[in-house]
Write a structure and sequence with these properties.
The structure holds two protein chains of two kinds.
Chain A lengths: L11 E14 L2 E14 L3 E5 L6 H8 L8 E12 L5 E5 L8 H6 L4 E4 L3 H4 L6 H13 L3 H14 L5 H5 L8 H13 L5 E5 L7 H18 L2 E6 L2 H7 L2 E6 L2 E7 H6 L4 H8 L51 E4 L2 E3 L5 H5 L1
Parallel strand pairs in A: 3-8, 3-9, 6-7, 7-8
Antiparallel strand pairs in A: 1-2, 1-4, 4-5, 9-10, 10-12, 11-12
Helix pairs in contact in A: 4-5, 5-7
Chain B lengths: L6 E13 L11 E13 L3 E5 L6 H8 L7 E6 L7 E2 L5 H8 L2 E4 L13 H13 L3 H14 L16 H13 L5 E5 L7 H18 L2 E5 L3 H7 L2 E6 L2 E7 H6 L4 H9 L39 H5 L5 E4 L2 E3 L15
The chains are: A alpha/beta, B alpha/beta.
The complex binds adenosine-5'-triphosphate (ATP), adenosine-5'-diphosphate (ADP), iron/sulfur cluster (2 copies) and magnesium ion (2 copies).
């Protein structure tokens, strides 16, 4: 059943507006993120989906100003709404802060937790799990070693690490891939952040381990009420986890909306094509897979007009090659960047 | 898919144990039982899927069949178009030479498996030079033909791998595997690194080529939705053992092994209206150097009884063509993908 959307301004955590991130390289400028808008709410999961290179990770990294050099936010706002215990709300534009600023460091890991695409590169091999967790706790919550240890072990237990006290003193290379990912989640959540950003947290894992981690994230969200921004290229994961969905193509949001509408009434030709190309487990469909013709263009050769134009089945001759469509509203907070929806939006 | 006409390869009691590197801890020596007493047949013209979690021995099984490694024990009976069957496990390098042309491999990683310093002509053409003695324009013609078959422009043969996208590189790998008109192709996670749209293009291509060239595939993947789409039959592995083997439809609709049931339930369904009832397996896949006693799956199995920790269940046929290694296969009702 279509889930009713109850989005209230009080639950707004993050507003990203017209975000542009560029990488000036010798060969030219990669416009990795080229005008992205989305919101994240408390107690809801926003999934960002799209093919490799479409700008999912860079969008996420920009929120905490963790984009690799020479990448740089060149335009846009990232407004983070901090809800304090006394009910007051402070809004900060993270895009305007310097990456190394005290204000941003106070937010990273404390109010916004992050789980990265590759656990191996974000965990230190020379420190124990406990060293790494307690560092976060002491930095942000100012607790002493003893209290940090207690809190850390509790958190490891919470994320389903067996023998948490022993594993607190283990090195990360002694753990399996699934356990390392749990440690990452424990570290991201140990200060009870309002927002969790998880970049492909299960892509490197088996389906069985993926199922464990997805169940864990759902449980933790139910307990802590955090907003989750989950990046994935797996539409199955989106269907299981998302409340809201951002479909990205070539650094832009092709379509935005609630998960039920995206899967059952997709608007953008790219979303439709993506959905058609998933091999389904169902036996009732015919056997040949639909695929999207052509490939994602390389970032130095962005097509003129609509970025999806060269692969689109619904091209409007004479217009799509010339105009890059803006986001047209679909109602209920949904939007689509496709010229076919111009009239819909006007009426 | 294609019709089957007889057995192409019979794998019998195949084992591959890797010696373990002596760690800092002496006395901890042992062996990794990557593949442990596995038997199955591959029928000519079929696509047999091999599925299971990371480290369960899929790649090792493929490497044994390709004889990249010499198996610890077991037989690999290959049945040629003409003449006597041969046991690949017993042949030396010289003896393997003719069969290496008939059994080829498509690799997982389209980035690592192509030599970046060679143009496509050399990459695809190398085995044609070595095995068929092709040179000059004859070689170029054949490479052009192969590139055309996989949907790449013949002009691309002068380019180097870095100039291609992931999906295009995978096509180059496929062209290379097909250059010598093989009969059996082992595709190890051939589409796992690809995005959905490119993945479906590649899967369609593999199916077209199978029909055109009467190929037989051993299709190794951890992705059940891909397996379901391309395979006629599926073999499920768990910690070095074959636990279930059946035609794709019965495996997905009426699995008989509790591990298969859990595996199927873990696949996220691409529909928010049917958020699944996942069976979340506790713990991790066991270490194949110290597999659990009895049925290797018993520490994670929700149906396990005392006997499961003591006796290893043999793989047996429970229904027509449906093989399963579980003591309780006749007693428990398991749920497939429609449940
Ligand atoms: N450090 C960097 N230097 C130069 N270009 C980069 C860098 N990081 C990312 N890019 C480029 O920015 C674009 C978006 O990359 P991003 O990593 O966000 O993609 P993604 O959607 O996360 O892809 P994937 O699904 O493969 O993780 C790509 O064109 C990529 O090549
Ligand atoms: N060359 C090797 N030396 C030692 N152990 C190996 C080697 N290759 C694979 N293994 C081990 O054998 C087991 C099965 O591996 P593999 O066949 O690659 O699994 P899969 O392809 O199913 O992921 C794993 O435990 C792996 O670590
Ligand atoms: S604007 Fe035109 S090219 Fe772009 S998605 Fe819509 S119909 Fe296709
Ligand atoms: S033999 Fe026992 S432990 Fe193994 S799968 Fe069957 S019921 Fe489970
Ligand atoms: Mg990424
Ligand atoms: Mg493998």
């Amino acid at each position: 059943m279509p889930v009713e959307r109850q989005l209230s301004a009080e639950d707004l955590l993050l507003e990203v507006r017209d975000l542009h991130v560029h990488f000036p390289l010798d060969e030219g400028t990669v416009k990795a993120v080229a005008g992205v808008d989305f919101d994240v709410y408390r107690n809801r999961t926003l999934c960002v989906v799209g093919e490799s290179g479409c700008g999912k990770s860079v969008s996420a990294q920009s929120i905490l100003q963790l984009v690799d050099r020479p990448g740089r936010i060149v335009q846009g706002q990232i407004r983070f709404h901090r809800h304090d215990a006394d009910g007051s709300v402070t809004v900060t534009d993270l895009a305007a802060l310097r990456s190394s600023s005290r204000a941003l460091r106070a937010i990273r890991g404390r109010h916004i937790g992050m789980v990265f695409q590759e656990p191996n590169t974000s965990l230190s091999p020379i420190h124990t799990v406990g060293n790494q967790i307690s560092e976060v706790i002491r930095l942000h919550l100012g607790e002493d070693e003893e209290a940090a240890r207690r809190r850390g072990i509790e958190m490891l237990e919470r994320v389903g690490i067996a023998r948490p006290a022993q594993n607190y003193d283990a090195y990360t290379f002694e753990l399996s891939g699934g356990m390392r990912q749990r440690v990452m989640i424990a570290m991201a959540l140990v200060c009870s952040p309002a927002l969790l950003i998880a970049d492909e947290p299960t892509t490197a894992l088996d389906v069985t381990t993926q199922a464990q981690i997805m169940s864990l994230l759902q449980e933790l969200q139910a307990d802590f009420g955090m907003g989750v921004m989950l990046i994935t290229h797996d539409l199955g994961v989106v269907a299981e986890m998302a409340d809201d969905v951002v479909v990205m193509y070539l650094g832009q949001v092709a379509e935005y909306g609630d998960v039920d509408r995206i899967f059952h009434a997709p608007a953008h030709p790219y979303t439709k094509a993506l959905l058609r190309s998933i091999p389904n487990l169902d036996f009732d469909q015919d056997i040949r897979l639909d695929s999207i013709r052509g490939m994602v263009p390389d970032p130095f050769h962005r097509p003129a007009g609509c970025p999806f134009g060269p692969r689109c089945d619904e091209v409007i001759e004479g217009r799509c090659e010339a105009e890059n469509p803006p986001a047209f509203s679909l109602g209920e907070g949904g939007s689509v960047r496709c010229l076919h929806y111009e009239e819909v939006a006007l009426s | 898919m294609s019709s089957t006409n007889g057995t192409l390869l019979s794998v019998r009691n195949l084992s591959m144990f890797y010696p373990m590197r002596a760690g800092f801890l002496q006395g901890h020596r042992g062996e990794v039982r990557a593949v442990d007493d596995v038997s199955f047949d591959i029928q000519a013209g079929e696509t047999l899927g091999l599925v299971g979690e990371s480290g369960c021995g899929k790649t090792t099984t493929g490497r044994c069949i390709l004889r990249v490694v010499a198996p610890t024990a077991g037989e690999l009976w290959y049945h040629p178009r003409e003449g006597e069957s041969v046991d690949l496990a017993r042949l030396d390098t010289g003896g393997l030479l003719p069969w290496r042309q008939e059994i080829r491999m498509i690799f997982q990683d389209p980035f690592a498996s192509l030599n970046p310093r060679l143009p496509v002509l050399e990459i695809v053409g190398e085995c044609l030079k070595v095995n068929r003695g092709l040179r000059g324009s004859a070689l170029e013609e054949r490479v052009a033909e192969l590139l055309g078959m996989v949907g790449l422009r013949p002009e691309y043969m002068r380019r180097y791998p870095h100039a291609f996208s992931g999906g295009e590189r995978q096509r180059i790998g496929i062209a290379r595997a097909l250059a010598l008109n093989p009969r059996l192709v082992v595709a190890d996670e051939a589409v796992s690194a690809l995005d959905v749209s490119v993945r479906s293009q590649t899967l369609n291509l593999l199916q077209d080529l199978q029909n055109e060239m009467q190929l037989t595939y051993l299709f190794i993947s951890h992705d059940l939705s891909v397996i379901r789409y391309v395979c006629n039959r599926v073999a499920v592995m768990y910690v070095g053992k074959l636990v279930e083997l059946a035609d794709t439809r019965s495996l997905f609709l009426t699995p008989q092994h509790p591990y298969t049931e859990a595996l199927l339930s873990s696949v996220p369904k691409p529909d928010p209206r049917v958020r699944s009832q996942r069976i979340v397996l506790e713990g991790d896949v066991p270490d194949p150097s110290q597999p659990p006693s009895g049925c290797h799956f018993h520490p994670r199995c929700r149906y396990a009884v005392d006997r499961c920790a003591e006796e290893t269940p043999p793989l047996r046929e429970t229904a027509d063509g449906h093989h399963v290694a579980c003591h309780l296969a006749d007693e428990i009702e398991l749920v497939g993908i429609h449940g």
